[in-house]
Design a protein that fits this description.
The chain is mostly beta strands and 162 residues long. The chain has one helix and nine strands, in the order H-E-E-E-E-E-E-E-E-E. 11% of the residues lie in helices and 33% in strands. Strands 3, 4, 5, 7, 8 and 9 form a six-stranded antiparallel beta sheet that branches. A three-stranded antiparallel beta sheet has the order 1-2-6, with no helix packed on it. The longest helix is centred in the N-terminal third of the chain and has 18 residues.
Protein backbone atom coordinates (compact mmCIF):
# COMPACT_ATOMS: atom_id res chain seq x y z
CA UNK A 1 0.00 0.00 0.00
CA UNK A 2 2.81 2.40 0.90
CA UNK A 3 4.53 1.62 -2.39
CA UNK A 4 1.36 2.50 -4.31
CA UNK A 5 1.11 5.84 -2.47
CA UNK A 6 4.76 6.64 -3.21
CA UNK A 7 4.20 5.90 -6.90
CA UNK A 8 1.18 8.23 -6.97
CA UNK A 9 3.14 10.91 -5.10
CA UNK A 10 6.07 10.58 -7.53
CA UNK A 11 3.73 10.78 -10.55
CA UNK A 12 1.99 13.85 -9.11
CA UNK A 13 5.34 15.56 -8.48
CA UNK A 14 6.48 14.71 -12.01
CA UNK A 15 3.25 16.07 -13.50
CA UNK A 16 3.50 19.30 -11.50
CA UNK A 17 7.17 19.72 -12.44
CA UNK A 18 6.42 19.23 -16.15
CA UNK A 19 3.75 21.96 -15.97
CA UNK A 20 6.18 24.56 -14.61
CA UNK A 21 7.20 26.96 -17.35
CA UNK A 22 10.87 27.69 -17.75
CA UNK A 23 11.79 31.37 -17.70
CA UNK A 24 11.82 33.23 -20.98
CA UNK A 25 14.68 35.56 -21.85
CA UNK A 26 15.62 37.41 -25.05
CA UNK A 27 18.10 35.70 -27.40
CA UNK A 28 20.53 38.57 -26.80
CA UNK A 29 22.56 37.92 -23.64
CA UNK A 30 21.92 40.14 -20.64
CA UNK A 31 24.48 40.58 -17.85
CA UNK A 32 24.57 42.21 -14.44
CA UNK A 33 27.62 43.05 -12.34
CA UNK A 34 27.60 41.23 -8.99
CA UNK A 35 31.00 41.74 -7.35
CA UNK A 36 34.71 42.45 -7.54
CA UNK A 37 36.58 40.39 -4.93
CA UNK A 38 40.28 40.72 -4.16
CA UNK A 39 42.03 37.42 -3.47
CA UNK A 40 44.90 36.80 -1.04
CA UNK A 41 47.25 35.86 -3.92
CA UNK A 42 46.96 39.35 -5.51
CA UNK A 43 44.41 38.29 -8.12
CA UNK A 44 40.77 39.32 -8.24
CA UNK A 45 37.50 37.69 -9.24
CA UNK A 46 34.77 39.58 -11.05
CA UNK A 47 31.36 37.91 -10.81
CA UNK A 48 28.57 38.67 -13.25
CA UNK A 49 25.11 37.18 -13.60
CA UNK A 50 23.88 36.32 -17.09
CA UNK A 51 20.73 35.30 -18.94
CA UNK A 52 20.36 34.06 -22.51
CA UNK A 53 17.17 32.88 -24.16
CA UNK A 54 18.64 30.58 -26.80
CA UNK A 55 21.58 29.18 -24.82
CA UNK A 56 24.31 29.87 -27.33
CA UNK A 57 26.91 31.22 -24.92
CA UNK A 58 30.50 30.04 -25.33
CA UNK A 59 32.48 28.25 -27.98
CA UNK A 60 32.50 24.54 -28.70
CA UNK A 61 35.91 22.94 -28.12
CA UNK A 62 36.16 21.87 -31.77
CA UNK A 63 35.48 25.37 -33.12
CA UNK A 64 38.45 26.84 -34.94
CA UNK A 65 39.59 29.44 -34.69
CA UNK A 66 38.71 29.95 -31.06
CA UNK A 67 36.73 33.17 -30.76
CA UNK A 68 36.85 35.49 -27.76
CA UNK A 69 33.37 36.08 -26.37
CA UNK A 70 33.87 37.77 -23.00
CA UNK A 71 35.44 41.21 -23.05
CA UNK A 72 36.75 43.41 -20.25
CA UNK A 73 37.96 46.95 -20.77
CA UNK A 74 40.23 48.49 -18.13
CA UNK A 75 39.79 52.17 -17.24
CA UNK A 76 41.81 54.40 -14.93
CA UNK A 77 40.61 57.68 -13.46
CA UNK A 78 42.73 60.60 -14.66
CA UNK A 79 43.61 63.78 -12.75
CA UNK A 80 40.38 65.43 -13.94
CA UNK A 81 38.32 62.61 -12.39
CA UNK A 82 37.37 61.09 -15.75
CA UNK A 83 37.84 57.37 -16.43
CA UNK A 84 39.90 56.79 -19.56
CA UNK A 85 40.68 53.59 -21.39
CA UNK A 86 44.39 53.07 -20.83
CA UNK A 87 44.84 52.73 -24.60
CA UNK A 88 43.63 56.35 -24.94
CA UNK A 89 46.90 57.52 -23.39
CA UNK A 90 48.51 57.09 -26.82
CA UNK A 91 51.09 54.67 -25.43
CA UNK A 92 50.47 51.21 -26.83
CA UNK A 93 52.04 49.44 -23.84
CA UNK A 94 49.24 50.81 -21.67
CA UNK A 95 46.61 48.87 -23.59
CA UNK A 96 45.54 45.99 -21.37
CA UNK A 97 43.49 43.46 -23.34
CA UNK A 98 41.36 41.21 -21.18
CA UNK A 99 39.46 39.09 -23.68
CA UNK A 100 38.41 35.55 -22.90
CA UNK A 101 37.06 32.56 -24.78
CA UNK A 102 34.45 30.77 -22.71
CA UNK A 103 33.58 27.14 -23.43
CA UNK A 104 30.07 26.32 -24.55
CA UNK A 105 27.44 26.54 -21.84
CA UNK A 106 24.63 25.28 -24.10
CA UNK A 107 22.46 22.86 -22.13
CA UNK A 108 21.38 19.50 -23.52
CA UNK A 109 17.73 18.95 -24.33
CA UNK A 110 15.00 21.13 -25.76
CA UNK A 111 15.09 23.96 -23.23
CA UNK A 112 18.15 26.06 -24.11
CA UNK A 113 17.45 28.94 -21.71
CA UNK A 114 20.55 29.84 -19.71
CA UNK A 115 20.79 31.73 -16.44
CA UNK A 116 23.68 31.74 -14.00
CA UNK A 117 26.87 33.37 -12.79
CA UNK A 118 30.25 33.70 -14.45
CA UNK A 119 33.38 34.26 -12.40
CA UNK A 120 36.32 35.88 -14.17
CA UNK A 121 39.70 35.53 -12.51
CA UNK A 122 42.15 38.32 -13.28
CA UNK A 123 45.67 37.39 -12.23
CA UNK A 124 46.95 40.95 -11.95
CA UNK A 125 43.92 43.28 -11.88
CA UNK A 126 45.95 46.43 -11.16
CA UNK A 127 48.70 45.94 -13.74
CA UNK A 128 49.19 49.31 -15.31
CA UNK A 129 52.68 50.81 -15.63
CA UNK A 130 51.22 54.32 -15.49
CA UNK A 131 49.11 53.85 -12.36
CA UNK A 132 49.90 55.19 -8.92
CA UNK A 133 49.01 53.64 -5.60
CA UNK A 134 46.21 56.13 -4.97
CA UNK A 135 44.61 55.78 -8.44
CA UNK A 136 41.18 54.30 -9.07
CA UNK A 137 40.25 51.87 -11.85
CA UNK A 138 37.12 50.18 -13.15
CA UNK A 139 36.25 47.51 -15.68
CA UNK A 140 33.55 47.44 -18.34
CA UNK A 141 32.33 43.95 -19.22
CA UNK A 142 30.45 42.61 -22.24
CA UNK A 143 29.45 39.10 -23.37
CA UNK A 144 28.89 37.96 -26.97
CA UNK A 145 27.01 34.83 -28.02
CA UNK A 146 27.69 32.57 -31.01
CA UNK A 147 25.24 34.57 -33.16
CA UNK A 148 27.34 37.71 -32.48
CA UNK A 149 24.63 39.20 -30.28
CA UNK A 150 26.29 41.59 -27.84
CA UNK A 151 25.07 41.88 -24.27
CA UNK A 152 24.64 45.13 -22.46
CA UNK A 153 27.82 46.61 -20.98
CA UNK A 154 28.17 46.57 -17.20
CA UNK A 155 30.69 48.43 -15.07
CA UNK A 156 32.37 47.30 -11.86
CA UNK A 157 32.26 50.70 -10.23
CA UNK A 158 35.33 52.38 -8.72
CA UNK A 159 38.12 50.09 -7.50
CA UNK A 160 40.98 51.72 -5.53
CA UNK A 161 44.45 50.45 -6.39
CA UNK A 162 45.93 48.93 -3.21
Amino acid sequence: MLTKQLIYLFMAALLINSCVDSPEFPDTPNIEFISFTEQSDGSAIITIEFQDGDGNIGEFMYDTPIVNNLFLDYYRKNDEGVYKDTAESGKAYYAIPLDYSMPSLTPLGQNKVLQGEIQIKIDNPWFDPGANKDDTIKYNIQLHDRDSNESNIVTTGPIPIP
